[in-house]
Amino acid sequence: MSDATSFPKSEIKVLLLENIHQSAIDIFGNEGFKVETISKALPEDELVKKLEEGVHVLGIRSKTRVTRRALEAGKRLLSVGCFCIGTNQVDLEGAKASGVPVFNAPFSNTRSVAELVICEIVMLARQLGDRSREVHEGKWRKVATSSYEIRGKTLGIIGYGHIGSQVGVLAEAMGMRVVSYDIRATLPMGNNKAVDSLDALLRQSDFVTLHVPETPQTKNMIGEAELAKMKEGAYLLNLSRGTVVDLDALAQAIKSKRLGGAALDVYPEEPESNSDGFTSIVRGLPNVVLTPHIGGSTLEAQEAIGREVANVLTRFTNTGATTGAVNFPGVDLPPLVGAHRVLNVHRNVPGVLRDINRLVSERNANVIAQQLATDPTIGYLVMDLDKEVANDVRHAIAELKTSIKTRILY
Ligand SMILES: NC(=O)C1=CN([C@@H]2O[C@H](COP(=O)(O)OP(=O)(O)OC[C@H]3O[C@@H](n4cnc5c(N)ncnc54)[C@H](O)[C@@H]3O)[C@@H](O)[C@H]2O)C=CC1
Ligand SMILES: O=C(O)CCC(=O)C(=O)O
């Protein structure tokens, strides 16, 4: 039996973790929702406890793992918002199976990441991290050894999506030659040349930068074998996800001087909050720039992400619209006028629509508007009905064995 939900706005509980920007808190607050904020990521047990207490809208950034167990504990959970680009931290299939759409901000921090990549390319080429640290320590090493211009050098971009293509455009403006590798065909921006294999990219690039999502295919996609294919003295940048690079192999390639340096913003294990310490095999290596997952951490990006994700979550809560959800069939819906709206997520199995239509017609309900979107596993049906019968229809549909989540909007 599904969990039927309908309530006044003041009873909608929003839980925001990981220092989500005030712009989001303001949007939810102005909407009349109840907002609780916690500045760090929650480990699974604590998240389960919070969700069991009755959270309707959960907001996270990249660190909180939203597991199937957490989703199953969140009986009242309506939606999850990732206030970032990556959604690998959420069990997306588990969320879908629980009738919970997951939203993100697909490009509000793109430019911030791209700018940091360009900055770090110059840093690596000039050994800026090391020179700066030395001067802070009172050492004056004015040397040109192993310092280069980036003009005319080749930048290899792995993952030519939003961030990768922005990086390419900026790098060309700095006089670099740009090549890219992606598993799908993409529109090359500027003079970028797509190459047809990872090998080809690794062998010709002076700088290699990674902009792929965390997936089973990208896990350790840069390991010992791939590092061995890179040019002598080349540089590696990873501002995507920590699982993409084998850090033991990277540390070895730096120590043996096979690579000239690396810039890392993400790690396989990251601290949950700013007060936790950080240990890694790559700490203390020469010409290795380490940052604490700040690729998207600019005020501009955080403010924009806060607004963007809070708005889509609010729109889903108020209208049922799932446009932009990363794990759910998309239904774009206008605000509700002159009717009640029944929203039903169901298992996509034969006979489900027949059963729903029977319940509607038995109640003599007039369907004012109806939308259905499906994928191979679920269906999302939205019906605007006469006010007199809508609640009765909602309860009857919620009782169907095929229903996953059913709610009504007044
Ligand atoms: N360091 C930070 O603070 C941030 C990190 N990120 C990370 O950057 C990643 C990329 O972001 P976007 O460019 O917005 O994503 P996107 O989805 O626009 O682009 C990713 C590209 O990678 C390609 N790709 C996927 N698997 C691949 C594979 N095995 N080999 C080659 N290419 C592959 C895709 O086809 C796509 O074109 C995000 O998934 C996120 O993990 C994003 C924002 C901030
Ligand atoms: O700073 C954050 O919230 C995470 C940024 C990130 O990795 C992303 O947007 O995917």
UniProtKB/TrEMBL annotation:
PANTHER family for this protein: D-ISOMER SPECIFIC 2-HYDROXYACID DEHYDROGENASE FAMILY PROTEIN (AFU_ORTHOLOGUE AFUA_6G10090)
Catalytic activity: (R)-2-hydroxyglutarate + NAD(+) = 2-oxoglutarate + NADH + H(+); (2R)-3-phosphoglycerate + NAD(+) = 3-phosphooxypyruvate + NADH + H(+)
Domain of life: Bacteria
This protein's name: D-3-phosphoglycerate dehydrogenase
Pfam assignment, any one: 2-Hacid_dh_C
Keyword S-adenosyl-L-methionine listed: no
Gene3D superfamilies linked to this entry: 3.30.70.260, NAD(P)-binding Rossmann-like Domain
Keyword set, alphabetical order: Amino-acid biosynthesis, NAD, Oxidoreductase, Serine biosynthesis
Chain's role: Catalyzes the reversible oxidation of 3-phospho-D-glycerate to 3-phosphonooxypyruvate, the first step of the phosphorylated L-serine biosynthesis pathway. Also catalyzes the reversible oxidation of 2-hydroxyglutarate to 2-oxoglutarate.
Entries under SUPFAM superfamilies matching the protein: ACT-like, Formate/glycerate dehydrogenase catalytic domain-like, NAD(P)-binding Rossmann-fold domains
Organism: Labilithrix luteola
InterPro entries: ACT-like_dom_sf (IPR045865), ACT_dom (IPR002912), AHAS_small-like_ACT (IPR054480), D-2-hydroxyacid_DH (IPR050857), D-isomer_2_OHA_DH_cat_dom (IPR006139), D-isomer_DH_CS (IPR029753), D-isomer_DH_CS1 (IPR029752), D-isomer_DH_NAD-bd (IPR006140)
Pathway: Amino-acid biosynthesis; L-serine biosynthesis; L-serine from 3-phospho-D-glycerate: step 1/3
EC category name: oxidoreductase
One GO-annotated biological process of the protein: L-serine biosynthetic process
